[in-house]
Amino acid sequence: MHRILVYPNQKHHSRPHLQAWEKDYISRGRLWGGAVVDLPAVPEGSLVLELGCGDGKTLVALPGGCRVVALDVSSKALRLARSVRADAAFIQADAGCLPLRDSSFDAVFAFHVASHLLADARRALAAEAARVLKPGGRLFFRDFSDRDMRAGGGVEVEPATFRRGSGIFTHYFTEDEAVALFCGLRLASVGTHCWKMRIKGEDHLRAEVQAAFLKS
Ligand SMILES: C[S@@+](CC[C@H](N)C(=O)[O-])C[C@H]1O[C@@H](n2cnc3c(N)ncnc32)[C@H](O)[C@@H]1O
After folding, report:
1. Any residues with CB less than 8 A from the CB of 118 and at least 6 apart, and which?
2. Rounded to a whole number, what is the distance in angstroms from the first to the last CA of the chain?
3. Which residues is 108 bridged to in the sheet?
4. Pocket test for ligand 1, best of 10, 25, 38, 73 (most atoms within 8 A of CB)
5. Which domains are present in the chain?
6. Which of 7, 22, 163, 211 could cross-link to 190 by cystine, CB 3.0-4.6 Å?
7. Ligand 1 pocket, CB under 6 A
8. Of all protein residues, whose CA lies closest to atom 13 belonging to ligand 1?
9. Sign (positive/negative) of CA torsion 143, 94, 40, 211?
Protein backbone atom coordinates (compact mmCIF):
# COMPACT_ATOMS: atom_id res chain seq x y z
CA MET A 1 0.00 0.00 0.00
CA HIS A 2 1.39 3.43 -0.98
CA ARG A 3 2.24 6.21 1.46
CA ILE A 4 0.27 9.44 1.26
CA LEU A 5 2.62 12.22 0.17
CA VAL A 6 1.84 15.47 1.96
CA TYR A 7 2.68 18.92 0.66
CA PRO A 8 2.48 20.97 3.88
CA ASN A 9 3.94 24.10 2.31
CA GLN A 10 0.55 24.68 0.73
CA LYS A 11 -1.91 27.05 2.31
CA HIS A 12 -4.97 24.85 2.81
CA HIS A 13 -4.57 24.58 6.60
CA SER A 14 -5.36 28.29 6.90
CA ARG A 15 -8.48 28.16 4.76
CA PRO A 16 -11.61 27.20 6.75
CA HIS A 17 -13.57 25.91 3.76
CA LEU A 18 -10.82 23.36 3.10
CA GLN A 19 -10.63 22.35 6.76
CA ALA A 20 -14.40 21.81 6.58
CA TRP A 21 -13.81 18.82 4.30
CA GLU A 22 -11.50 17.16 6.81
CA LYS A 23 -14.06 17.69 9.58
CA ASP A 24 -16.84 16.26 7.41
CA TYR A 25 -14.89 13.09 6.54
CA ILE A 26 -13.83 12.62 10.18
CA SER A 27 -17.38 13.01 11.51
CA ARG A 28 -19.32 11.23 8.74
CA GLY A 29 -16.77 8.83 7.21
CA ARG A 30 -17.50 7.74 3.66
CA LEU A 31 -19.51 10.58 2.07
CA TRP A 32 -20.14 9.49 -1.52
CA GLY A 33 -22.48 6.57 -2.16
CA GLY A 34 -23.53 4.87 -5.37
CA ALA A 35 -21.45 4.07 -8.40
CA VAL A 36 -20.07 6.40 -11.06
CA VAL A 37 -22.02 5.97 -14.30
CA ASP A 38 -20.65 6.19 -17.86
CA LEU A 39 -17.07 6.73 -16.83
CA PRO A 40 -15.09 7.87 -19.91
CA ALA A 41 -12.76 5.17 -21.24
CA VAL A 42 -9.01 5.59 -20.84
CA PRO A 43 -6.53 3.36 -22.67
CA GLU A 44 -4.74 0.66 -20.72
CA GLY A 45 -1.41 1.85 -19.32
CA SER A 46 -2.52 5.53 -19.16
CA LEU A 47 -1.18 7.70 -16.36
CA VAL A 48 -4.27 9.23 -14.80
CA LEU A 49 -4.65 12.02 -12.22
CA GLU A 50 -7.81 12.41 -10.19
CA LEU A 51 -8.23 15.85 -8.60
CA GLY A 52 -10.28 15.90 -5.39
CA CYS A 53 -10.57 12.10 -5.22
CA GLY A 54 -12.59 12.21 -1.99
CA ASP A 55 -13.19 8.77 -0.51
CA GLY A 56 -12.54 7.04 -3.82
CA LYS A 57 -15.89 6.71 -5.60
CA THR A 58 -14.44 7.60 -9.03
CA LEU A 59 -11.03 6.16 -8.24
CA VAL A 60 -12.40 2.68 -7.69
CA ALA A 61 -14.17 2.81 -11.07
CA LEU A 62 -11.03 3.68 -13.06
CA PRO A 63 -9.77 0.64 -15.02
CA GLY A 64 -7.21 -1.56 -13.27
CA GLY A 65 -4.84 -1.21 -16.23
CA CYS A 66 -4.23 2.52 -15.53
CA ARG A 67 -1.57 3.99 -13.27
CA VAL A 68 -3.43 6.37 -11.01
CA VAL A 69 -2.43 9.39 -8.91
CA ALA A 70 -5.17 10.52 -6.53
CA LEU A 71 -5.03 13.97 -4.95
CA ASP A 72 -7.13 15.67 -2.29
CA VAL A 73 -6.74 18.33 0.41
CA SER A 74 -8.20 16.06 3.07
CA SER A 75 -5.92 13.47 4.66
CA LYS A 76 -8.94 11.56 5.99
CA ALA A 77 -10.45 11.38 2.47
CA LEU A 78 -7.15 10.06 1.14
CA ARG A 79 -7.00 7.36 3.80
CA LEU A 80 -10.55 6.28 2.90
CA ALA A 81 -9.66 6.31 -0.82
CA ARG A 82 -6.54 4.24 -0.21
CA SER A 83 -8.67 1.55 1.40
CA VAL A 84 -10.59 1.08 -1.88
CA ARG A 85 -7.71 1.48 -4.37
CA ALA A 86 -4.40 0.53 -2.77
CA ASP A 87 -2.46 0.50 -6.07
CA ALA A 88 -2.84 4.28 -6.62
CA ALA A 89 -0.35 6.94 -5.47
CA PHE A 90 -1.89 9.43 -3.04
CA ILE A 91 -1.01 13.11 -2.64
CA GLN A 92 -2.39 15.57 -0.12
CA ALA A 93 -2.21 18.93 -1.88
CA ASP A 94 -4.31 21.77 -3.27
CA ALA A 95 -5.59 21.19 -6.81
CA GLY A 96 -4.73 24.81 -7.58
CA CYS A 97 -1.01 24.27 -6.97
CA LEU A 98 -0.04 20.80 -8.13
CA PRO A 99 3.33 19.38 -7.03
CA LEU A 100 3.51 17.54 -10.36
CA ARG A 101 5.54 17.89 -13.57
CA ASP A 102 4.38 19.65 -16.72
CA SER A 103 2.98 17.43 -19.50
CA SER A 104 3.07 14.22 -17.46
CA PHE A 105 -0.50 12.79 -17.48
CA ASP A 106 -2.56 11.11 -20.21
CA ALA A 107 -5.84 11.99 -18.49
CA VAL A 108 -7.06 14.20 -15.67
CA PHE A 109 -10.41 13.62 -13.96
CA ALA A 110 -11.98 16.61 -12.18
CA PHE A 111 -15.31 15.26 -10.93
CA HIS A 112 -17.16 17.41 -8.40
CA VAL A 113 -14.10 19.28 -7.22
CA ALA A 114 -13.97 22.60 -9.15
CA SER A 115 -17.45 23.35 -7.78
CA HIS A 116 -16.05 23.44 -4.26
CA LEU A 117 -13.65 26.27 -5.08
CA LEU A 118 -14.15 30.01 -5.41
CA ALA A 119 -13.75 31.55 -8.88
CA ASP A 120 -10.02 32.36 -8.59
CA ALA A 121 -9.24 28.89 -7.27
CA ARG A 122 -11.35 27.28 -10.04
CA ARG A 123 -9.21 29.11 -12.61
CA ALA A 124 -6.04 27.94 -10.82
CA LEU A 125 -7.29 24.32 -10.91
CA ALA A 126 -8.06 24.59 -14.64
CA ALA A 127 -4.63 26.07 -15.42
CA GLU A 128 -2.86 23.41 -13.36
CA ALA A 129 -4.85 20.59 -14.97
CA ALA A 130 -3.90 21.89 -18.43
CA ARG A 131 -0.26 22.26 -17.40
CA VAL A 132 0.16 18.66 -16.18
CA LEU A 133 -1.61 17.08 -19.18
CA LYS A 134 0.55 15.72 -22.00
CA PRO A 135 -0.18 17.01 -25.51
CA GLY A 136 -3.01 14.76 -26.70
CA GLY A 137 -4.09 14.17 -23.09
CA ARG A 138 -7.71 14.51 -22.05
CA LEU A 139 -9.48 16.24 -19.20
CA PHE A 140 -12.84 14.98 -17.97
CA PHE A 141 -15.03 17.38 -16.00
CA ARG A 142 -18.26 16.79 -14.05
CA ASP A 143 -20.05 19.13 -11.66
CA PHE A 144 -23.63 19.96 -10.77
CA SER A 145 -25.53 22.29 -13.08
CA ASP A 146 -27.35 25.47 -12.12
CA ARG A 147 -30.54 23.47 -12.90
CA ASP A 148 -29.82 20.96 -10.12
CA MET A 149 -32.34 20.75 -7.26
CA ARG A 150 -29.72 21.89 -4.74
CA ALA A 151 -28.71 25.05 -6.62
CA GLY A 152 -29.66 28.08 -4.56
CA GLY A 153 -29.59 26.32 -1.16
CA GLY A 154 -27.47 28.06 1.52
CA VAL A 155 -25.76 31.43 1.63
CA GLU A 156 -24.56 32.82 -1.71
CA VAL A 157 -20.86 33.68 -1.30
CA GLU A 158 -20.17 34.38 -4.99
CA PRO A 159 -22.48 34.28 -8.01
CA ALA A 160 -24.07 30.78 -8.13
CA THR A 161 -21.82 29.57 -5.24
CA PHE A 162 -23.60 28.63 -2.02
CA ARG A 163 -22.18 27.80 1.42
CA ARG A 164 -23.96 25.20 3.51
CA GLY A 165 -23.89 24.85 7.32
CA SER A 166 -20.76 22.69 7.32
CA GLY A 167 -18.74 25.52 5.76
CA ILE A 168 -18.40 23.66 2.45
CA PHE A 169 -19.55 25.63 -0.57
CA THR A 170 -20.71 24.52 -3.97
CA HIS A 171 -20.76 26.35 -7.27
CA TYR A 172 -23.44 25.35 -9.80
CA PHE A 173 -22.24 25.48 -13.42
CA THR A 174 -23.74 26.30 -16.76
CA GLU A 175 -22.32 24.43 -19.74
CA ASP A 176 -20.85 27.69 -21.13
CA GLU A 177 -19.09 28.35 -17.86
CA ALA A 178 -17.50 24.89 -17.80
CA VAL A 179 -16.28 25.40 -21.37
CA ALA A 180 -14.89 28.86 -20.53
CA LEU A 181 -13.13 27.56 -17.42
CA PHE A 182 -11.01 25.14 -19.46
CA CYS A 183 -10.38 27.61 -22.30
CA GLY A 184 -6.71 26.53 -22.39
CA LEU A 185 -7.86 23.16 -23.77
CA ARG A 186 -9.82 22.17 -26.86
CA LEU A 187 -13.46 21.24 -26.22
CA ALA A 188 -14.33 17.68 -27.26
CA SER A 189 -17.88 17.46 -25.83
CA VAL A 190 -20.21 19.13 -23.37
CA GLY A 191 -23.71 18.29 -22.18
CA THR A 192 -25.95 18.08 -19.14
CA HIS A 193 -26.90 14.71 -17.72
CA CYS A 194 -30.23 14.83 -15.88
CA TRP A 195 -32.00 12.32 -13.69
CA LYS A 196 -34.79 12.31 -11.13
CA MET A 197 -34.34 11.81 -7.41
CA ARG A 198 -37.43 10.84 -5.45
CA ILE A 199 -37.64 12.47 -2.02
CA LYS A 200 -40.70 12.02 0.22
CA GLY A 201 -42.84 10.95 -2.75
CA GLU A 202 -41.79 13.86 -4.98
CA ASP A 203 -39.45 13.87 -7.98
CA HIS A 204 -36.55 16.34 -7.88
CA LEU A 205 -34.16 17.14 -10.71
CA ARG A 206 -30.48 16.28 -10.48
CA ALA A 207 -28.46 17.83 -13.27
CA GLU A 208 -24.74 17.47 -13.92
CA VAL A 209 -22.63 19.27 -16.52
CA GLN A 210 -20.25 16.78 -18.16
CA ALA A 211 -17.47 17.90 -20.48
CA ALA A 212 -14.34 16.49 -22.09
CA PHE A 213 -11.35 18.49 -23.35
CA LEU A 214 -8.20 17.71 -25.29
CA LYS A 215 -4.76 19.30 -24.94
CA SER A 216 -3.39 20.18 -28.39
C1 LIG B 1 -17.56 16.10 -3.73
S2 LIG B 1 -16.00 15.40 -3.32
C3 LIG B 1 -15.62 14.61 -4.88
C4 LIG B 1 -15.12 13.23 -4.74
C5 LIG B 1 -14.71 12.49 -5.99
N6 LIG B 1 -14.11 13.29 -7.02
C7 LIG B 1 -15.86 11.69 -6.56
O8 LIG B 1 -16.11 11.81 -7.76
O9 LIG B 1 -16.50 10.95 -5.83
C10 LIG B 1 -14.95 16.85 -3.42
C11 LIG B 1 -13.54 16.58 -2.92
O12 LIG B 1 -12.71 17.68 -3.29
C13 LIG B 1 -11.78 17.90 -2.25
N14 LIG B 1 -11.27 19.28 -2.39
C15 LIG B 1 -11.91 20.44 -2.11
N16 LIG B 1 -11.14 21.48 -2.40
C17 LIG B 1 -9.96 20.98 -2.89
C18 LIG B 1 -8.75 21.56 -3.37
N19 LIG B 1 -8.58 22.88 -3.38
N20 LIG B 1 -7.78 20.74 -3.79
C21 LIG B 1 -7.93 19.39 -3.76
N22 LIG B 1 -9.05 18.78 -3.32
C23 LIG B 1 -10.05 19.56 -2.89
C24 LIG B 1 -12.54 17.64 -0.97
O25 LIG B 1 -11.70 17.34 0.11
C26 LIG B 1 -13.44 16.47 -1.40
O27 LIG B 1 -12.86 15.24 -1.05
Report:
1. 157, 158, 161, 169, 171
2. 35
3. 49, 139
4. 73
5. 4-214 (3.40.50.150)
6. 211
7. 18, 21, 32, 52-54, 57-58, 72-74, 77, 94-96, 111-113, 116-117
8. 52
9. positive
Q: 162 has which bridge partners? A: 156, 170
Spacing, Cα 66 to ligand 1 middle (Å): 21
Sheet with 105-111, strands from edge to edge, namely: 4-6, 89-92, 67-72, 47-51, 105-111, 133-144, 202-214, 186-199
Residue nearest to atom 4 of ligand 1 (CA): 54
Rounded to the nearest whole angstrom, what is the distance from the C-alpha of residue 91 to the centroid of ligand 1? 12
Q: What is the DSSP string of 120-159?
A: HHHHHHHHHHHHHEEEEEEEEEEEEBTTSTTTT-SEEEET
pLDDT in tens, 15-63: 777 788 989 898 887 777 777 888 999 999 999 999 999 999 999 999 9
Q: What is the pLDDT of residue 148?
A: 97
Of the given ranges (6-15, 39-48, 179-188, 192-201), which has the lowest mean pLDDT?
A: 6-15
Give the predicted TM-score (pTM) of the model. Answer: 0.94
